Amino acid sequence: MQEKKLLITGASGFVGRHLAPALAERGYRVAAIVRHPGAFGPTVNQLLIKDITDVDWMPLLQDIDVVVHLAAIAHRGDDVAEAVYDKINRQVTASLARATARAGARLIFLSSVAAQSPSSSDVPLTEKNLCIPAGGYGRSKLNAEIDIAASGGQYIILRPPLIYGRGVKGNMRRLIELATLPVPFPFGAVTNERSLLAIENLISAIGLLIQRDDIRNELFLVADATPVSLPEIIASLRRGMGRSANLFALPAPLLSGLFRMCRLTENWEKLAGNLVVSTDKFSSVGYSPVVSTSQGLAAMTRALPPSGKRFSSAEV
């Protein structure tokens, strides 16, 4: 069987830096669109594009079998205008989807659970839930999905929760930095459940979809097998550092009140709220996580520098 040719956008980002070399190692011919040349080695053909809003896609799509679209502005709160989210996350995606349809390739789009839900939900999420997107970021992702479906091409949309792994940024990076501190945390009584996604499991999921030409025009939620609580997350992070969990219990209502007094209600919801993602639909077509959340979190912090105190984009 002839090897498939892949085009990956956003390969300079956290997911792309893991995905591009992993797919090349599996024998695919990988062309990776990057803003800055990376250390992918000779197995990945790097295409340097500074402005993804001004790209003629058709020459890049010649002989391409599958496009994996990762490029996006991540959820950054109120410091990004909605029009910017829309331009990068929706308009660029719509343009690429139309071009991919014309080229006869398949599109795998990395959307987000934020297209479907705010940062916490009292009910488990399935693909059938009504979408209540989270802010401008979530709306841009949902609108991109709608444009993809209208493009006339073959597509698969993935909605992951928070993705973690070596090099992670954002909320998980901040939680790692907190976990390195030699102090106890008062979260022992928190009993929430949150779904996360290990980068290894995301790579496995995308690899499955690349192989399966029969899966098309579908949307899947994707996550690790089992949701975890905040205390379990901290315990796993610290276990990877060779430390005990070092947790004590304050009542959750008291903690919630303290966060609210400090005007950190949204942070508390992201830490201690529920967000459970069902992967039943994806599992029915063959998705099976390769690592558990506890294994993935511990492995991530086990790879930190010995001091565990200094972080860079290459370290975390």
Distance between the termini: 38 Å
> Going across the major beta sheet, what is the strand order?
3-2-1-4-5-6-9
Structural class of the secondary structure composition?
A: alpha/beta
Rounded to the nearest angstrom, the radius of gyration is 20 Å
Number-wise, the strands total 9
- Which percent bin holds the helix content? 25-40%
Mind telling me the CATH superfamily name of the domain at 5-159?
A: NAD(P)-binding Rossmann-like Domain
Can you summarize the main beta sheet? Answer: 7 strands, parallel
Query: What sort of overall outline do the alpha carbons produce when their principal axes are compared?
Result: globular
Reading the helices and strands in chain order gives EHEEHEHEHEEHEHEHHHHH
CATH topology of the domain at 5-159: Rossmann fold
**Which segments are poorly predicted (pLDDT under 50) over 5 or more consecutive residues?**
307-316
Count of runs of 4 or more consecutive helical residues: 11
